[in-house]
Write a structure and sequence with these properties.
By secondary structure, the chain is an alpha/beta fold. 43% of the residues lie in helices and 21% in strands. The protein contains 20 helices and 19 strands.
Length: 580
């Protein structure tokens, strides 16, 4: 977390905190974006969205003066204070109190000096120190220093940091606590402009909800990169998208819901104007082919290893852009004609036979031998476990009935992942017993062990019994184009690998899916696909997620709230219940 002052080139009378005109930037010789015009006024809260790798963080760095653009200019109003949220490596000599004090800025320094003088003053007094003391008190009053402690306490409580003593070394706290501590220091400083890059990482549901309320009432300017759709709806007034296709950013008014609806309308319009769409596609395709051709000719014409490596990077970037274009056009067709979307959940032979016989109820129960509604398929009694000598779960009693979809919530460190691992059989409890009468699959938070040379289509077919053409059609539904079917899964991004694992789980005849933060690493297109797949999935779900929008879309029926080692079970009146 840092608070910086930008170089000012605008007149003092300007109202805008930040202005940008004609910004463009490249990465490895490939254009990221161009023609960026941007104004941030007091009270405006802007969400910056787009797929990974399109330059969102780069644009933040340009707008805050941390990076010089290839072309264009950024200006700021005189004295504008910009608070930047970034992950920081812990200083082994610093403490929690030190990090929080950084956020107080001048107020913190004033308080320290006032305390020093108070300690030094004797009964005789010291005219010099008394004069300084009076000046410092006047400045402290002008800055409303008396509010600093209450601001710090409020932010600290809402971000779940009360349990950390001021003298706790930063080296002894977790990465999640580090991130929340950095965010707390930034918010209590109350700069004019908040620049937040994925601020919800490591925040629990309560912390995310509080952040949304805080930002909605913030009187300065906010510029935020996030994939949290509920936060975008709660907190931003407009959205700028870098979509990886257009060189220029696309602008939308309102939060995520308005953005999503308007984007759909724009693509539908393109489809209705077929000629315009084809010209658009041909222009982009020609540009992509020219880039690929130039890269190939450079690679073949030189023996210099550095130049050849650079040319390969350019060709790879062009190929990625081509894939993104094809995906967007296919998505647009799906919007206009949903029946053309490939199936996301398979109809296995036993289900297909039941459907042909005219019994939908029989079909639902026969898929993977799905149990009848209401029957208990998983029961945990008196579960208890300690990790590192610290009690995590204590006498936990939970059960899952057929047809239930369960959200597991609770503050960071409450034991949500530990509970999921016990239910999935990956971790043995110290006490209690677990009875599972059905099949179960788990999606962990991390999956580095899957980085192998197995191809995407081979990986899918090794876990789901499919003919090759059926496997390819299923992959197409999960946004894997033909150029990705035969690439090693070791080359996939974190989001692509997660999407592939979800495709496997949804279609592997597991009756219970245990999902730990399934939305991690997924962009908006992938989230739409995964949500649709989980809505169509007929089995039970046990899911840890802090994404409120996602939880609502997949139709959860119950909530397990973990706190102080115990679980409280609540029934949700969610979308799925309303449909039943």
């Amino acid at each position: 977390m840092t608070t910086t002052h930008l170089k000012t080139r605008t007149p003092a009378k300007t109202r805008a905190y930040l202005k940008a005109r004609g910004l463009s930037h490249h990465y490895d010789g490939e254009l990221l974006f161009s023609g960026v015009d941007f104004v941030l006024n007091p009270g405006e809260r802007v969400g910056l969205v787009g797929p990974n790798g399109v330059g969102k963080s780069t644009l933040l760095a340009l707008l805050t003066g941390r990076l010089e653009p290839v072309s264009g200019v950024v200006t700021a109003a005189p004295g504008t204070r910009i608070g930047w949220f970034e992950q920081q490596a812990p200083d082994p000599d610093a403490t929690v109190g030190d990090r929080l004090a950084e956020g107080l800025g001048e107020i913190g320094a004033l308080a320290d000096r006032l305390h020093e003088i108070e300690q030094a003053l004797t009964g005789q007094g010291d005219d010099v120190e008394l004069d300084e003391y009076g000046d410092l008190q006047e400045r402290w009053t002008a800055l409303r220093g008396w509010t600093a402690q209450s601001r710090q306490s409020r932010v600290r409580t809402e971000l779940g940091l009360d349990h950390l003593a001021d003298d706790t070394p930063l080296s002894q706290i977790s990465g999640g606590e580090q991130a929340r501590l950095t965010l707390a220091g930034l918010l209590q400083a109350e700069p004019d402009v908040l620049v937040l890059d994925e601020p919800t990482n490591h925040l629990d549901t309560q912390g995310i909800a509080w952040l949304g309320r805080y930002l909605a009432g913030f009187r300065g300017g906010v510029l935020m990169v996030t994939h949290d759709r509920a936060l975008l709806d709660d907190a931003v007034t407009r959205i700028i998208e870098l979509d990886g296709i257009h060189d220029e950013p696309q602008h939308y008014e309102g939060g995520y819901t308005a953005y999503h609806e308007e984007k759909a309308r724009r693509w539908q319009s393109l489809l209705l104007e077929y000629e315009a769409q084809e010209k658009y596609r041909e222009r982009l395709a020609a540009d992509i082919e020219a880039t690929k051709g130039h890269a190939t000719s450079v690679e073949l014409a030189t023996k210099d290893s550095t130049t050849r490596r650079y040319a390969k990077k350019v060709a790879k970037k062009a190929k990625a852009r081509e894939r993104r274009l094809e995906r967007q056009i296919q998505s647009a067709r799906w919007i206009a004609r949903p029946q053309t979307r490939p199936a996301l959940t398979l109809a296995f032979s036993d289900e297909a036979e039941a459907i042909e016989s005219g019994s939908a109820e029989t079909a639902a129960s026969q898929v993977s031998g799905m149990p009848e509604s209401g029957r208990v398929v998983l029961a945990a009694r008196e579960l208890g476990i300690k990790l590192g000598g610290r009690p995590i779960l204590d006498a936990v009693d939970v059960e899952v009935q057929a047809g239930q979809r369960i959200a597991v919530t609770g503050p960071n460190g409450a034991g949500k992942t530990t509970l999921l691992r016990i239910l999935a059989g990956e971790l043995a409890p110290d006490t209690g017993r677990l009875v599972v009468s059905t099949t179960l699959g788990i999606l962990p938070q991390t999956h580095d062990g899957l980085r192998t040379e197995t191809t995407v289509v081979e990986f899918l077919r090794s876990r789901v019994p499919l003919h090759l053409d059926d496997a390819e059609a299923l992959l197409d539904g999960y946004l894997f184009g033909p150029d990705q079917w035969n690439v090693p899964i070791s080359t996939l991004s974190a989001g692509e690998l997660r999407r592939l694992l979800l495709a496997v789980l949804v279609n592997s005849r597991q009756e219970i899916l245990v999902l730990d933060e399934p939305t991690n690493y997924l962009d908006f297109d992938a989230l739409d696909v995964v949500e649709e797949a989980l809505r169509a999935y007929k089995g039970m779900l046990i899911m840890v997620t802090h994404d409120r929008y996602f939880a609502d879309r997949v139709g959860l029926t119950h909530t397990w709230t973990l706190e102080h080692g115990t679980v409280r079970v609540d029934r949700q009146a969610g979308r799925r219940q309303a449909e039943n």
